[in-house]
Amino acid sequence: MRIAFEFQRGGGGEQRSLNPLENPTISSGSSAEDLLAFFGLLGNDPQLPHVTIDTALEVPSNWCAVNFLSRMMSSLPVHVLKRDGDGKLKQTTGDLPALLNKAPNPEWTSQGWREYMWTQVFTGGRGCTWIERQGSKVVALWPMDPDRTTVRRRRGQKFYRFENREYPAADVIDVTFLLKRNQLDVYSPVYKNKRSIALMLAMNDYASSFFASGGTPPLALEGPLPQGAEAFKRAQADIQRAIDLAKRSGSSFFGMPPGHKLNPIGIDPQKGQTIEGRAFQIGESARIWGLPPVFLHDLTKGTFNNVEHQDLQLVKHVVTHWSVKFEQELDLKLFGQRNRSREVKHNVDGVQRGAFKDRVEGIAKAIQTAQLTPNEGRALDNRPPLPNGDTLYIQGATVPLGTQPVLKTPPDDGEPDAEPGKQAES
Fold this sequence. Notes:
This protein is an alpha+beta fold. The chain has helices at 32-38, 53-56, 60-75, 95-101, 110-123, 189-192, 194-212, 229-249, 274-289, 304-335, 356-368, 374-379, and strands spanning 2-5, 78-83, 89-91, 126-134, 137-144, 149-154, 157-162, 165-168, 172-176, 219-222, 261-264, 342-346. Pfam families: Phage_portal.
């Protein structure tokens, strides 16, 4: 006869299946089915943890991904540019740039508003902001709770209903993670990947119970046991009391009745694979939100060179994508469909700065090759312009082929040439 129970701090036991795992080890490269089986979740009706946005953020790698993206995108400077008579875009000042960079309304800072909006985008899949206008002038921007916002299409026009009021699409800044086919609803990165996130939560629950029991796996007692249900319960309670007493006293052993022994069920602590499970979580989070692993603080395969290249990947494939999405939504809703003279741009130079030495050398080379003026180079580091700094320069030795100046050879006066560094005798 066998009694299965699990040691837990503070007493009490949990009934477990007596079937041991056939393969007690797993790798982070295994299939989802193998991982589910490893954590005891594969069956006719696997009871995965319920996934919500709040529970998904309990996984450290998910928390890190959402916070990193929302903080980064909300910290980028936003410039309002206007096209002058020569067709060149120049940065402007005024009320609208102040709304976007300082305070969109009396209650929010620009960084707080944008961080809130991006957090909703990277969790629920949509971030909305109502544009308050006086006539055609934008006077404030107010964030909307996406869970309380309904998007509808009526007679071909899109409307947003929020707090018993309805707003036309032209008055709502709507940034989405990914639109569904009906062009109204959105895919949430959390709910669309809920099975993978549920597996992450199951790993957390598994590790918590494993280490809460002192790293002791479920155990089974073997030996002659009393007959009858009541006697059986009394024997189990006596053994549990002995275990709890040993824990409280700090003893590393406790006595067992003669002819009895405890056998582990499932896996032992050495095969817990907790580190592998954490590596799997980081990889899944990186894929869901499209982040290089280094930005989830995973440097297991990082080197100095490839970490720097992951910086470039972040700017090229993550920052650029979300910046363009936000910029074009602002252009459309703030200036209208047919506007050609004004636009909004993020300044991503701060993300690309890199090492000080490399940055200074790069700016110097751009100035020497007439790609930047000195003042334009200074502006990249937010330094004030200097007089006469708006002139393009180029190195004098760089000339078109065939136009090199011909150096004249001095006449031969019969005297030996002077040695380098010495003047010829007169």
